[in-house]
Amino acid sequence: MTGINEKTKLVKLGLEALIARESGKRLAQWGGSEKQSRPMTRRVRP
Hints:
The chain is built from 1 helix and no strands. By secondary structure, it is an all-alpha fold. It is elongated.
């Protein structure tokens, strides 16, 4: 199914994917939570 034959490698990749997904959810929940903040200026590289 995944093409990965080593159990250890498969578990490691699965855990990394889970952590990345849950971190993304947590960041999405924080989005827009600071109502008094102002938009940040971004530097444009030449």
